[in-house]
Design goal:
The complex is a heterodimer. Chain A is of the alpha/beta class. Chain A is built from nine helices and ten strands. Chain B folds into two domains: 263 residues, no CATH class; 109 residues, abc type-2 transporter like domain (abc type-2 transporter like fold), CATH 3.40.1710. In chain B, helix 10 packs antiparallel against helix 12.
């Protein structure tokens, strides 16, 4: 489970002054649910997710992830989190197997368990043909699969996806969306950030709309549409972020 | 800190770096090839240039001396010079390297020589120019010989033995063993080369493992793991240090092989010491080399930590290169100072990072072991290195540095 309580991150920039990347963001995600964090570029999605993954330290508020506090127990939080973003790349000079094994070892897996996990993930994701190929020789789709296997190797309870389909073609994007759905079906707690409305509509059980670091609206798709009074999610989103509607 | 995590990160970085061509070139190939190129290549070239200059019959000019035809005839007869009468622009011709040297024979020189009170002969050359210097040297030898023959003739005319003019000889003999002589002559240069490689060997892994990872997006992937930031820094730092020490080890192995090859090619000199073309003993005290290796370890730690820290601050590999260059220069300048003759180790210089190592390495290669200085230098360099490593950990914990865009 994820529970964010007034999560705040203030960046200090010499020229721009104070920038509130996340401003008192509070929400809760139950196991077996997908929480969609919807926002435009620079809205605060990545900052919020990096705070939850303990890559950044909050300047205010806190959150618990899989029962661990992100400020007091960051290492334990990371041990229960799988994080996938466009910015989390693979080691080009290592093979897919080596990358997965590396992150398995960093997560404390023994060699025997690691072998069986890699075998199971390769079968599940259809990676056996390219498991021993260097990552810089893989296609975009293969890299996505290797990244997913890297994220899953320690079987985390919480999955964080930060715009995972950015820059991918339709086929690769669909595979990701399908994979996220499977995570939910297995009882994982999933948080999924995107600015693609159709993805949020298809996937998310609960949607949070973030803008200027603040959570402007939250609810199921039906609740968001009803609150904003828009014909669809895109129109409702625009109404909410421009202040014309409330969720 | 978890030794297992540090070991996992180090093993991965090692495997990754061994597949990186730039790291392999800087840490293994360059130190292996540069020593033979420097010692054999440049040495052979220099030896050829000097030998060609020695074989040349230099063109010289005689200024004045019209009333001393015998001297000019002797100069021509020696076969060592192409003698010409001086033209009006003889000074310019020497400066333009068209004439190697000139000799000014004063009026009435030959006549005055008979009485033993001749005025001075002046030699003109292009100072610092090899061929000109050799020509002037040959002229000096010629006139020294003439002076000695004149002295002997004048003494004989008075019925005195030659020993009156030279009652005793002065001889000089080297008492230092060949390895000490060799160490003293090449110690500064060796320390310079070895420490330079310790910097170069660390540079590419440092840039690749910090700025390179940030640029490629793998740093964020790594930060998602439950490993502590300190463990990540230590694992990566150990790889940078490995690159640095590998470069030093390769340069030393290459140096040993090169010197052995030179020794075989030139034949062993007195006491088994192989000698270079200029009579320089090519033997270095193996104990001194071991001492240098031990002293290089804290320097490697220092430069590995500094270069890693600098590279962490950079956003990209290219930016890291820009930041690393001044570090390399700052490191190399004290090494250059350490090579200068007359700069000796003292308490004040023992506290100057890098310069102190350069000076103590030079001493150890010459067989001089100042244990107090050695301990002080090792300790201070270790303190500087620990401070640099602590700074690297601090930088790695800084969000502003790691997520700097």
């Amino acid at each position: 489970m994820i529970e964010a309580r007034l999560l705040t991150k203030v960046f200090r920039d010499r020229r721009k002054g104070e920038i509130r990347g996340a401003d008192a963001v509070s929400f809760r995600v139950e196991p077996g649910r997908i929480y969609g964090l919807l926002g435009a570029n620079g809205a605060g999605k990545t900052t919020t997710l990096r705070l939850l993954a303990t890559l950044l330290r909050p300047t205010g508020g806190t959150a618990t992830v899989a029962g661990h506090d992100i400020v007091r127990e960051p290492d334990k939080v990371r041990a229960h989190v799988g994080f996938l973003a466009t910015s989390t790349a693979l080691y080009a000079r290592l093979t897919a197997r080596e990358v997965i094994a590396y992150f398995g070892r960093l997560n404390g897996l023994g060699e025997e368990r690691l072998r069986s996990r890699i075998g199971a993930l390769a079968d599940e994701l259809g990676m056996n043909d390219f498991l021993d190929r260097r990552c810089d020789k893989l296609s975009t789709g293969m890299k996505q699969k290797a990244s997913i296997a890297r994220m899953l190797v320690h079987d985390p309870q919480v999955m964080i996806f930060d715009e995972p389909t950015l820059g991918l073609d339709v086929i690769a994007s669909r595979a990701i969306v399908e994979f996220v759905r499977q995570c939910r079906d297995r009882g994982k707690t999933v948080i999924y950030s995107t600015h693609v409305m159709s993805e949020a509509e298809k996937l998310c059980d609960v949607i949070g709309i973030i803008h200027g670091g603040r959570l402007r609206a939250e609810g199921t798709l039906a609740e968001i549409l009803a609150g904003a009074g828009g014909a669809g999610l895109e129109e409702s989103f625009v109404r909410i972020v421009t202040g014309e509607g409330r969720g | 800190m978890s030794a297992r995590s540090v070991g996992t990160i180090y093993a991965k970085e090692l495997a990754d770096s061994l597949r990186d061509r730039r790291t392999l070139v800087s840490a293994l190939l360059m130190p292996m090839l540069l020593m033979p190129v420097l010692i054999l290549g440049i040495g052979t070239l220099a030896s050829r240039v000097v030998s060609r200059a020695r074989q040349e019959v230099p063109r010289i000019m005689v200024v004045g001396g019209a009333d001393s035809p015998g001297i000019r005839a002797e100069l021509e007869k020696s076969g060592k010079f192409r003698v010409e009468s001086a033209s009006a622009d003889w000074r310019r011709l020497i400066s333009d390297r068209k004439v190697r040297a000139a000799v000014e024979i004063p009026a009435g020189f030959e006549r005055a020589l008979e009485s033993g009170s001749a005025p001075p002969v002046t030699l003109y050359d292009f100072e610092g120019e090899l061929n000109s210097g050799l020509a002037a040297g040959q002229l000096r030898t010629f006139f020294t010989g003439l002076r000695e023959r004149t002295t002997a003739r004048l003494l004989a005319a008075r019925g005195l033995p030659e020993s009156v003019a030279r009652p005793f000889e002065v001889r000089q003999s080297n008492v230092a063993p060949p390895e000490k002589t060799g160490g003293n002559l090449v110690g500064g240069f060796l320390a310079y080369i070895i420490i330079t490689f310790c910097i170069i060997g660390a540079m590419y892994p440092a840039m690749d493992l910090a700025a390179g990872e940030k640029e490629r997006g793998t740093m964020e992937t790594l930060l998602c793991s439950p490993v502590s930031r300190t463990d990540i820094v230590l694992g990566k730092f150990l790889m940078v240090l490995t690159g640095s020490l590998a470069a030093v080890a390769c340069s030393l192995i290459s140096l040993g092989v090169t010197l052995a090859a030179v020794g075989t090619a030139l034949g062993a000199g007195p006491g088994g010491a192989a000698r270079g073309g200029a009579g320089v003993p090519m033997t270095v005290d193996p104990l001194g080399l071991l001492g240098v290796l031990a002293m290089v370890i804290p320097v490697s730690v220092l430069f590995s930590a500094v270069l890693f820290t600098v590279s962490l601050f950079a956003k990209s590999y290219k930016e890291a290169q820009t930041y690393a260059q001044p570090v390399v220069f700052i490191g190399i300048i004290p090494l250059g100072i350490g090579m200068l003759p007359g700069i000796d180790l003292n308490l004040r210089l023992a506290l100057v990072p890098v310069l102190n190592i350069s000076l103590v390495c030079k001493e150890m290669l010459s067989g001089v072991w100042h244990w107090g200085y050695i301990a002080a230098i090792f300790a201070t360099t270790a303190v500087y290195a620990a401070a640099a490593l602590a700074l690297a950990v601090r930088m790695f914990r800084s969000e502003g540095v790691i997520f700097r865009t």
